[in-house]
Design brief:
The complex is a heterodimer of chains A (389) and B (373). Chain A has 389 residues and is α/β, with parallel strands linked by helices. Helix content of chain A is 37%, strand content 13%. Chain B is globular, with a radius of gyration of 21 Å. Chain B starts with 11 loop residues before the first helix and ends in a 19-residue tail after the last helix. Classes of the chains: A alpha/beta (389), B mainly alpha (373). At the A-B interface, α6 of A face α20 of B.
Chain lengths: 389, 373
């Protein structure tokens, strides 16, 4: 028992200075610890009910039950306003901590959930055999350099999305911060066998990370009492702990009833989701700002498609095409990016895209994560001006 | 170090090593028996147990229910209870080798049939295994081979068969791709069912690996199985499974085994040669246990079973989701099993499975040794 205790103390002492060093080594190939938070809005988010063209007659004409008036929206300008449930988002937007890329989509969307979700998540639209997700591909790149590294985490509860399919990297799911607690009492010293030493080093680093995460969790901010906000609380704690995570992946909506796929009775359900989204992200940004971390973080939403302009007679909307992508973070160029889609030039009943989602991805890969976007996307997509220099 | 049979004194350490690598682990009485029987007899018994394995597997087959979590749970139970653990270990090896996953197949019944096919041939003849693989709808769906029209032969599927299942990267010519694709024309999978359309099969002559004939999928399997590039690849993969993931074996080491394997394509005999060898017994701490091996190993060693539905989910989070290898490349294995997150999950799992630590020799779950085979 004494011996074990002594070994434990020795290992702990070692761990106290080891992790940050190894951590930096593992991620030096990045660009100074920027973090990407991906929020998957499952089901197809109705962009027209988020960034509302309240002054457009076409909008007023076709949205019978969902129509928001000039008085109801949170005005961005004399044409567009945010849905009233996005009040907290509007606050971030006014503070320069949020922006919106309008009219994002891609050519030849099948407008089916599994197919379109697959397209956004593999970033290889139309290639039904493409084996990995774009987040998984990035994780694989990191793990090829350091197989013990954990660059990506999935914040659950939520089944593994295609985006996280990797060939090599094992991506952890974090349900609660206690999942990262180091369970063992003893660490043995290194041995001289390279494989044993590898496991030992991973163990020492992991126990250091575990302590850093528990410490970070003790400084957590205030969040609304929703599962989504709780996921963002865990996300903020993992970022604060500085354990080398580069991408954190969350989901909102559940991809089922109560999610974004509002074919019927959309009004209240969608409003509730938007309130959860905005409340969670605002609390998250406030939490990060308190610790001076907002500048290291970019939050990005993805959703398989937008929805039709015309209501479907069941107080809902059907699968559409383009939709806005929401961005939050401390280094954004504020405001609206790109024009609102022209409602007189629809794509089969829905707003038409003018910006490919892969232009957004390419920008994030290159300018935020410091990665070669062409290697991930398979071709060159021009970057968009999203960030403050 | 060579493939000649091991001659060193037979002791507890070596017997335990054999069982860890070839039977998930040994309990006390298995170890005692191995010590008194000696290595040759023990290895023979691991390959061909006296128990009625077929009856056991029939019983298990009858239990398997058709949701993915349940299939996963039943397989874990089978691994824990089977009188033939080596068969399950090699079945798991082939599952990784072929990399067929529910995420691509989307039919639980096809996944169940696929793993049963792997089990039926796991220690049999490799050409028979490959022959079954080229008639397995799950394989077609997983490897992009659902459609094989004569008018547009599916070269993507052909390339996957050459790249992942047989000769491997750099070992085939463009002609092998086009003509393999032609050999598969007329065989489709629709709604999870076979659809043979004889009139859609290109019956003309094809040249695959330099041999010309009116080849069908079965001919492809027969020709591909005995290609030197294929047999070398199988020997290397089994070397990783049974001996070392740390150092790739030299060509000199692989060549004699690949040659004798090519002569009879007998997987059981190849595994036996490896298990008997000097090099096998000189390779401790050269592999990382996969999550399934780690959990099943503890249960078999302690002689306990645990609820396998939650265990299956937990092992999936540690990177090994049974019936769902991440891609056609299977699980990368080795050091990839251990990262700064999985080491915590693995240690937590081991601590819980051990329950009472006193039951176990050197049972410190935080010890690096514990993670290795």
């Amino acid at each position: 028992m004494n011996l074990t205790r002594r070994e434990f103390l020795r290992a702990s002492a070692l761990a106290a200075f080891l992790p940050p060093v190894l951590c930096r080594a593992a991620f030096a190939a990045g660009d100074g610890h920027t973090v990407l938070v991906v929020v998957q809005l499952s089901g197809g988010n109705d962009g027209l009910n988020c960034v509302v063209p309240y002054a457009d007659d076409e909008y007023a004409k076709h949205r019978n039950t969902l129509r928001l008036s000039a008085r109801e929206v949170l005005k961005i300008n004399d044409q567009l306003g945010f849905h009233p449930a996005l009040a907290e988002w509007k606050r971030l937007y006014d503070q320069g901590l949020a922006s919106v890329v309008q009219g994002v989509g891609y050519p030849r969307s099948s407008r089916g959930h599994p197919e379109a979700a697959r397209d956004w998540q593999t970033a290889r639209p139309g290639d039904v055999n493409w084996p990995t997700g774009w987040v998984g591909q990035i994780a694989d790149q990191v793990c090829a350099r350091d197989s013990a590294a954990v660059p990506v985490a999935l914040i659950t509860p939520f089944t593994h999305p295609i985006a996280l399919t990797a060939e090599r990297a094992i991506i952890p799911s974090v349900r609660k911060i206690e999942d990262a607690a180091w369970p063992a009492s003893a660490l043995r010293p290194a041995s001289g066998n390279p494989l044993l030493d590898y496991v030992h080093t991973a163990t020492v680093v992991a126990s250091g990370h575990s302590r850093a995460i528990q410490a970070a969790a003790s400084r957590t901010g205030n969040y609304p009492a929703t599962p989504f906000a709780n996921g963002l609380r865990i996300t903020a704690n993992l970022i604060r702990a500085d354990v080398g995570l580069r991408i954190l992946y969350l989901e909102l909506g559940g991809g089922d009833i109560g999610g974004f796929d509002n074919h019927a009775g959309q009004k209240d359900n969608h409003a509730a989701l938007l309130r959860q989204f905005a409340g969670g992200v605002a609390a998250f940004m406030d939490d990060l700002r308190r610790d001076g971390l907002a500048e290291r973080v970019l939050l990005l939403t993805i959703s398989e498609f937008g929805r039709t302009l015309i209501e479907n007679g069941r107080r809902g909307t059907d699968h559409g095409a383009a939709a806005p992508v929401f961005l939050a973070g401390g280094r954004l160029k504020p405001g609206l990016i790109g024009a609102h889609p022209d409602l007189r030039a629809l794509d089969n009943g829905a707003p038409r895209h003018h910006t490919d989602f892969r232009n957004v991805y390419a920008t994030v890969f290159e300018r935020w994560l410091g990665l070669d976007s062409q290697a991930i996307l398979g071709e060159k997509f021009e970057a968009i001006d999203l960030f403050c220099s | 170090m060579t493939w000649t049979p091991h001659q060193q004194p037979w002791d507890r350490t070596r017997a335990a090593h054999l069982f860890r690598r070839a039977a998930f682990g040994a309990n006390q009485s298995e170890l005692e028996r191995a010590l008194s029987d000696g290595p040759a007899k023990t290895i023979d018994r691991l390959l061909k147990p006296a128990a009625d394995v077929a009856a056991f597997n029939r019983e298990q087959d009858a239990c398997e229910t058709l949701t993915l979590p349940e299939l996963r749970g039943w397989w874990l139970r089978r691994m824990m209870a089977t009188p033939h653990p080596l068969l399950e270990q090699v079945t798991l090896f082939w599952h990784g080798y072929f990399g067929v996953g529910f995420n691509r197949v989307n039919h639980a019944d096809l996944m169940r049939a696929h793993v049963r096919t792997l089990r039926a041939h796991a220690l049999g003849k490799f050409d028979a295994l490959l022959g079954a693989i080229v008639r397995d709808p799950a394989v077609f769906l997983a490897a992009g081979g659902a459609n094989n029209p004569k008018a547009l032969p599916n070269e993507y599927f052909a390339r996957q068969l050459l790249l992942h299942y047989t000769v491997g990267d750099g070992q085939f010519a463009p002609r092998d791709v086009t003509d393999t694709a032609r050999a598969f024309t007329g065989f489709h999978v629709r709604g999870g069912k076979w659809r043979d359309v004889p009139s859609d099969h290109d019956a003309g002559p094809k040249t695959i690996f330099g041999q010309t004939g009116p080849w069908t999928p079965l001919d492809f399997a027969r020709l591909a199985a005995k290609q030197p590039a294929t047999t070398r690849r199988i020997v290397r993969a089994l070397y990783r499974q049974f001996i070392s993931e740390e150092q790739g074996p030299s060509d000199d080491l692989i060549e004699p085994l690949a040659r004798s394997f090519a002569a009879d394509l007998d997987i059981g005999k190849l595994v036996a040669t490896m298990l008997h060898s000097q090099i096998f017994f000189s390779s401790p701490a050269q592999r990382v246990k996969s999550p399934v091996e780690l959990a099943v190993g503890i249960c078999r060693t302690l002689g306990v079973t645990v609820p396998t539905l939650p265990l299956g989910a937990e092992l999936a989070e540690l990177g090994q989701d049974l019936y769902q290898p991440p891609t056609l490349k299977g699980w990368p294995g080795g050091r990839a099993w251990i990262n700064h997150a999985t080491i915590i999950g693995r240690t937590r799992l081991v601590t819980r499975l051990l329950g009472n630590k006193k039951l176990f020799d050197a049972a410190d779950p935080a010890s690096p040794e514990f993670q290795l085979a």
